Amino acid sequence: MKKVEVIGIKKCFGNLVTLEDVSITLEENQFVSILGPSGSGKSTLFNIIAGLIRPDEGTVEIEGENVIGKTGRVSYMHQKDLLLPWKTILDNVSIPLILKGFPKKQARWRAGTYFELFGLQGFEDYYPAQLSGGMRQRAALLRTYMFSNDIMLLDEPFGGLDAITKRNMQHWLLRVLENLNASILFITHDIDEAIFLSDKIYVLSERPAKVKAVFDVNIPRPRNIKTFTSKTFNELKEDILNIL
Amino acid sequence: MKKLQSIGNRLLPIGFTSILLAIWEGMARKGFVQPNLLPAPTKIIHTLVTNFSLMGEHILITSFEAVAGFLISIAVAVVVSVLMDMMPMMRKTLYPMMITSQTVPMITLAPLFLIWFGYGYLPKIIIVILVCFFPITISLLEGLASVDQELLNLLRSMGAKKYQIYRLAKFPAAMPGFFSGLKIAGTYSIMGAVIGEWVGGKKGLGLYMIRVRHSFATDKVFAAILVITALSLLLLGIIRWMEIRLVPWKKYMFQQSEEEYDS
């Protein structure tokens, strides 16, 4: 089943054409990466899918329903964790539920049940500033999951982390996703990351962004460190490098 | 090591002030200055203690005017800054007016208020409001605007309503700045009330100071100054205490870089 379908999106800011005819499909339980150079309008695309920006042309359908200009269906996770410094991790993660109208106590309880799965147990009452960058991103992902547990938009979520933490977080993300029924749209400019995590990769061109190529990643799961040195991985990497 | 340093930081101003006071005391006792021009610190304290019951009513009245004006200006500042934050038109219209209003010296307005509003509490409270309103509004306004645009987008993407965005993000983000504004305004508030009484009134520390000055009782003038300082510090202390209670995350925000450095 198609979870998200982006059809022929075009968006200009003034005279600057940012997105030109971008079409992307996300199937159920799929992990799809959007790979492209920085500043190619990938974040604009997410803002359009999240309903924050209206495109000039094209439509966005989520489970068959047109969601242009409608917020509240899917949320996204950002390179910055965007946790509220004045709320504890548990309260931060409960925010989506509270915005959906859950009573505070129930929201906390529901969010709390996921702390172990996300590797956050014991940190419920910490403030974000007391946590490392990697832990904060875990909390940010859990918050995104609490909002829309079937579709998550991840906008370079590990872009602000150091190389070692980033690698750990990629493995962590795959492990967590094994336990969730989630379809993921993932923005990155890191080719290794895209191949390691995804089922499908859309390569975007520089501004104005167009879909340059689509690759299927036929590497079996579960994936591990050996994936990075496998033959399929490197062949695919070469193909993508040739296109970029 | 750190503890030692913090004790040192406290001792330094206390020590320096003590030395200055000791010099002052010594000069007054040795007769370098005439005691009726500049009374010795011990004499001022003595006067304060013996006159305290006489000053009591004046202290209460000045405090009432200051606190009333301070609280009203907080209420007005919250309403005005939220309106200005929500409506750019409002901001563009009011901002220049507010800045300009601050260039008018309060001491020149005070006599006018006397003519317009009489000798009661009202003109004093209005002066306090005029003095306090500006720092509170500006700090709150800047605090409300300081929230990361990405964070606002994120909350909107989750379907947050406008009031929820204010409650979850904007007001808490504005708190540290708001309290800085409150501290400035709080210290001004007592001064504002005293200025109001100074130009004309029936009671209050300002009036008391005028009276004792006319009788050249400099020790009583100094005693009144001491009381005004103490009142301002007391108000400041209350604001600080509330800040610690209401902004408990502040300590973590500054602790962060240090911790990362340690590990």
Automatic annotation (TrEMBL), chain A:
User: Gene3D superfamilies, per this entry?
Assistant: P-loop containing nucleotide triphosphate hydrolases
Keyword tags? ATP-binding, Hydrolase, Nucleotide-binding, Transport
Concerning InterPro entries, the annotation shows:
AAA+_ATPase, ABC_transporter-like_ATP-bd, ABC_transporter-like_CS, ABC_transporter_ATP-bind, P-loop_NTPase
Q: Which SMART domains match?
A: AAA
GO MF annotations in UniProt: ATP binding; ATP hydrolysis activity
What residues does the ABC transporter domain cover?
A: 4-231
Q: What is its EC number?
A: 3.6.3.36
List the Pfam families hit by this protein, alphabetically.
ABC_tran
Kindly give the PROSITE patterns that the UniProt entry links to this protein: ABC_TRANSPORTER_1 (PS00211), ABC_TRANSPORTER_2 (PS50893)
Q: Which domain of life is it from?
A: Bacteria
Q: Which PANTHER family match?
A: ABC TRANSPORTER ATP-BINDING PROTEIN, TAURINE IMPORT ATP-BINDING PROTEIN-RELATED
User: Per its record, how is this protein called by name?
Assistant: Taurine import ATP-binding protein TauB
Q: Which organism is it from?
A: Thermotalea metallivorans
Automatic annotation (TrEMBL), chain B:
Q: How does it sit in the membrane?
A: Multi-pass membrane protein
Q: Does the keyword Metal-binding apply?
A: no
Q: Where in the cell is it found?
A: Cell membrane
Chief location? membrane
* Protein's UniProt keywords contain Disulfide bond: no
- Pfam families registered for this protein in UniProt: BPD_transp_1 (PF00528)
Protein name (Swiss-Prot/TrEMBL): Putative aliphatic sulfonates transport permease protein SsuC
Write down the species.
Answer: Thermotalea metallivorans
